[in-house]
Amino acid sequence: MMSQPPNSHHEEAGGQEGRLRPRPLHRPSVDPAQAATFGRPRGVEGSFDPPAQGREHGGGHGNGNGNGNGAGHQLVSAPPPPESLVEAFRRPPGADGVVLQRPDDDPGTGSRADGEPEAPLWSSSGDPWRDPGSGAVLGGPAVPAADGADERAERPRGPLLSLPEVLFGRRVKPTALALLGVVALLVGAAGGFVGWGLANAGNSLTGELNIAEAQAGKERPAGSIADIARRVSPAVVSIEVKSGQSGGVGSGVVIDPEGYVVTNHHVVSQAARDDAAGITAVFIDGTRAEARIVGTDPKTDLAVLKVNVSNPVAIEVGRSADLAPGDAVVAVGSPFGLENTVTEGIVSALNRPVTAPGENGEPPITYDAIQTDAAINPGNSGGALVDSTGALVGINSLIRTVGTGGEGGSIGLGFAIPVDQVVRISEALIADGEVKHADMGVNAASVAANTSEGAQVRNVVTDGPADKAGITEGDVITMVGDRQVRNAAELTVAVREHEVGEVVPVRIVREGRPFTVDVTLGSD
Question: Which intervals carry biased composition (Low complexity) (predicted)?
């Protein structure tokens, strides 16, 4: 008995009872709007567009049974391509070979001009989905393979060459061998360089550190505090005074290449009274040199020493008259024996009369000071006060403090002797060993404490300059020359601004009546 396909069935004469019939085809209604959007174009009834030849000849479309429907429609041909595209993509004149377009005498009819049917434009190995009515095809290779040749067959390999044959068998050109040697050398050199670099980089992994010397991490331009200190410090020395079991420490400034050092009188006063006392100047490089006193001026607290050293660094001397309140200044000295200590501040005031008691019965110290807030402490005495250019403008001398017994520190009130006065007195001490100051021949006191009403005369030296000018006890002096006098200290410094023998107008208030007298100044 022959087996039947699973989906086939036979109708018998009498039918078969109980056999199921095919389910009727369900055709749902179609929305006209969707049919207009997604339906087939007009004139297209099948799944694919009919062949072009049927449309162009006006024939009917073939149905599923091969019968024409007799209702053919005219195919609208596309417009001819632009001339530029035709010229760009057409075959060059005289070209032979396989064409990608049907000949001009066969406009898509599927037959040649002589009536013979044309060979199919594709084979079973070609693209089965290609439109047979297409005007362009993919041709074969430009150069056909030889008959019987297997394109996939491997080419025969020649015999392998040994190294002697390559080098000595004349099988390779000498130029190629030389080039090969150069390449080998380059590769070897590159490998050696890479190995050297890796070996040096590996030192950090093995704990071997090569630390290079670091450069300066901060720029120090000219005029900075560091630059000023570098230039000034070699000219500032520490003064050590030793007398028996006692001694003291101060500062000094080299003002002349011959070895002259200026300092305060109270720094070396102990040595001035005791011939057995020794004075030592210590330079920034540690050099120690014995110093001797050239001369002192207790009234202005100045002294000049002489040290025997070769080529000492002398400080540049400026002008204190050019200063103004607010100018930057730097103090260099040895506070509490700490050599070459640098502090910075400003000029707080100029022409500030200050007075300090003398030591061991000596006359009081009075001078016109530069007031500064640069930190000055015991040991800074005799040190340098320089301006923003590093030039000497004063010799540090006194401080105002709130402590008792001279043990207090700096409270921002320091006083320095102006360098213009220092130069004048130092020249006199070097030349003569002493200095003379102008004097009026009176003793005076402030009119009242903490006031600026003038200096009241307490007594007058007989036959002195004031006595000869008619000044009497009780007169209040308010001006000397062109400088106002507000207290007793300012009277002293105002008189010392002038030379001995100079005639100076002095303004006096007597019993409420002001008048002026001329005084010929004498010497103290």
Answer: 132-147
